[in-house]
């Protein structure tokens, strides 16, 4: 069984310096210096002018659904965290489950009906 709800937590020692800076600045959310640094590095890496990071994949999916003005059915996988499906439902769309390819764990195009 693959546990899709177990988070990956790297060794805390790798993040103590950044955590100490966060505590020293008392800046926990919304456009702190680390977020701005991440956005700049991602812009350079991806070669794009505009980029906006969000706090989780659920919000990212909801923003994408809104930005694309999607309506009706959206294909997704049941092999995901519940928030994937919830983000579709919260945007008044209907999730349609498609099975995954056992080799890649991605949607299997052969199974789309």
SSE map:
Layout: H1 16-25, H2 33-46, H3 57-67, E1 73-76, H4 82-90, E2 94-97
Parallel strand pairs: 1-2
Description:
By secondary structure, the protein is mainly alpha-helical. It folds into two domains: 44 residues, no CATH class; 59 residues, no CATH class. The protein has four helices and two strands. A two-stranded parallel sheet has the order 1-2. The longest helix has 14 residues. The protein is extended and about 55 Å long. The two termini are 27 Å apart. The model has no long low-confidence stretch (mean pLDDT 90).
Give a quick rundown of the structure.
With 113 residues, the protein is mostly helical.
Q: Can you give keywords for this protein?
A:
113 residues, mainly alpha
Bulk shape: extended
Low-confidence stretches: none
Q: Record the strand order, biggest sheet.
A: 1-2
- In total, the number of domains comes to 2
Strand count, sense and closure of the main sheet?
Answer: 2 strands, parallel
Arithmetic mean of pLDDT: 90
**What is the terminal-to-terminal distance?**
27 Å
Find the count of extended strands (DSSP E, 2+ residues). Answer: 2
- In DSSP terms (H or I, runs of 4 or more residues), the helix count works out at 4
SSE order, one letter for each helix or strand: HHHEHE
Which structural category fits the helices and strands?
mainly alpha
Helix content: 25-40%
User: What is the C-alpha radius of gyration, as a whole number of Å?
Assistant: 18 Å
Percentage of β-strand residues: 5-15%
């Amino acid at each position: 069984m693959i546990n899709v709800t177990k988070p990956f937590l790297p060794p805390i020692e790798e993040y103590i310096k950044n955590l100490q800076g966060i505590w020293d600045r008392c800046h926990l959310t919304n456009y702190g210096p680390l977020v701005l640094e991440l956005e700049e590095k991602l812009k350079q890496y991806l070669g794009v002018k505009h980029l906006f990071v969000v706090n989780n994949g659920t919000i990212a999916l909801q923003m994408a659904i809104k930005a694309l003005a999607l309506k009706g059915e959206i294909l997704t996988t049941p092999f995901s965290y519940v928030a994937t499906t919830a983000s579709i439902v919260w945007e008044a769309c209907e999730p349609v489950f498609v099975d995954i390819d056992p080799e890649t764990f991605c949607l299997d195009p052969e199974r789309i009906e």
